[in-house]
Specification:
The protein has 453 residues and is of the alpha/beta class. It is built from 16 helices and 14 strands. The protein has a domain of 155 residues: Anaerobic Ribonucleotide-triphosphate Reductase Large Chain. The strands form 2 sheets. Strands 1, 2, 3, 4, 5, 6, 7, 8, 9, 10, 11 and 14 form a 12-stranded mixed beta sheet that branches. Helix 6 packs parallel to helix 7, helix 7 packs across helix 15 and helix 9 runs antiparallel to helix 10. The protein is globular.
Length: 453
């Protein structure tokens, strides 16, 4: 029986507390697009994307209207392009990136992910060529997003890749300095990257994935905050955790309903539901706001990491009870520029770089959308990436670095991207040198618990 209070609760989640389907992402294998001729590869890629995704935006918009729930982004994730391009006699990865961009534009999606390479244990020729092309590819396209997996709990940390990606991040920011380094905002370095993640910039269609699938990302930090604020101020952590699980269950159920119906209409398999509390710059849609509802004065106070750990765990537990298809990243994101509360905390000095790094040991991803001075040395950026890779490797979790060294700007200044990317204050990093360490080369071995097969 339909109950009035449940109807009102759902309406309030959407209208008052920013519940949304953050993304519907079509994951698409391009492995059959390989050819020795680069022109044939690009033609195959364009034709396949436009065939499978031709109705994605139209049908998603229909469901948005039918169910009155916002679907904020429509996206595509493809096979790591390093694997496709290396089949060519004369690979041109920038040309492939432009083909991806054109296809994404023609079908109307917001972003296309998968300009990627998986190099945790070493490089192929295709990997090297793709990585070198990333700065130009991101500077000359609008919708293309790039990711590189440089470490895993099974393989260790490829320190040659870490140093190379620090150089690539720096160059990507410099080539787009007229837009405050937005190229680096579309680039992420991973440890333990999942192949079914629907969120950008790290989405790609993993090797073990089917020909195509629809992966859905749902977000609702405002809903979680409202539920916590409705609790008694003296409610203990058990009650607090149960309330978060209850809300996560409802959010996941909503996302799976929309995802399965949309997949059926598109005549493709439903993939995963990724329940990630991905914030936006909108007031009331903040993970940092959840910390305040829990009783902290602001994000960054002592206790923030513990609050985030409980939040992340409760979200996963609630989501997994609602669906057998929970995947992707699932948990709580802490992107600095995309969260109004995190922006405020960073601007006031409550959130330091070291505190953000500590929080990544228990959050869903890692150091995300952090603006740093443009003069930051490559070796320092490599050290930052290495630290984050180590957290992921040792803890058997996904971690990532999406950092923006903003050319010509320094501590205290601000970058403004607008939309979901928001704005960010430029925060300081440690000035001590990492040079000798990050330039040793080779691979940091995987931990002993990797030998579990």
């Amino acid at each position: 029986m339909i109950k009035e209070d449940l109807i009102l609760e759902t309406i309030n989640m959407i209208r008052l507390y920013n519940l949304d389907i953050r993304t519907v992402t079509l994951a698409l294998s391009l492995r059959d697009c390989a050819d020795s001729d680069i022109n044939v590869v690009c033609e195959n890629i364009y034709n396949k994307i436009t065939h499978y995704a031709k109705n994605l935006v139209e049908y998603a918009s229909e469901f948005e209207n039918d169910y009155s729930i916002p679907i904020v982004n429509k996206r595509i994730a493809v096979t790591p392009i390093s694997l496709i391009g290396e089949s060519c006699k004369n690979p041109d990865y920038v040309k492939i990136a432009k083909t991806l961009d054109t296809a994404a534009k023609d079908v109307g999606v917001n972003f296309i992910g998968g300009f990627s390479a998986l190099v945790e244990k070493g490089f192929t020729k295709g990997d090297k060529l793709l990585i070198e092309s990333i700065p130009q590819a991101l500077a000359e396209t609008e919708r293309v997003c790039s990711s590189v997996n440089a470490a895993s709990s099974k393989a260790g940390i490829n320190m040659d890749a870490v140093l190379k990606m620090a150089e690539i991040i720096k160059k990507s920011a410099e080539l787009t300095k007229d837009k405050d380094g937005i190229g680096a905002a579309k680039l992420v370095v991973f440890c333990n990257s999942p192949g079914d993640n629907p969120f950008m910039a790290g989405a790609f269609c993993g090797i073990g994935e089917p020909e195509c699938a629809l992966n859905v990302g749902v977000s609702g930090p405002g809903v979680v905050r409202a539920a916590i604020e409705a609790l008694d101020k003296n409610a203990d952590f058990g009650k607090l955790s149960n309330k978060i699980k209850e809300i996560a269950y409802k959010i996941t159920s909503t996302g799976e309903l929309i995802g399965r119906k949309l997949a059926k209409k598109l005549e493709i398999p439903f993939g995963v539901i990724d329940l990630s509390l991905a914030p936006t710059p909108a007031v009331g849609d903040s993970v940092a706001g959840i910390f305040q509802a829990m009783g902290l004065e602001h994000a960054g106070a002592h206790g923030t990491t513990a609050a985030l750990a409980m939040l992340n765990d409760a979200v996963k537990k609630g989501g997994i009870m609602a669906s057998s298809n929970v995947g992707g990243l699932s948990g709580a994101f802490i992107p600095v520029s995309e969260d109004a509360g995190m922006i405020e905390a960073a601007s006031k000095g409550y959130l330091t770089f070291d505190k953000l790094e500590a929080m990544t040991s228990v959050c869903s991803v890692g150091l995300d959308m952090i603006a740093i001075p443009g003069a930051t040395p490559v070796d320092t950026i490599a050290g930052i990436i290495a630290d984050e890779m180590a957290i992921g490797m040792i803890n058997k979790k996904t971690t990532a670095v999406r950092i923006i060294p903003v050319s010509g700007k320094n501590i205290g200044e601000e970058v403004i991207y607008g939309g979901l990317l928001g704005k960010a204050p430029i925060i300081p990093v440690n000035n001590l040198s990492s040079s000798c360490f990050v330039r040793r080369g080779g691979r940091i071995p995987a931990p002993i618990h990797s030998l579990n097969n």
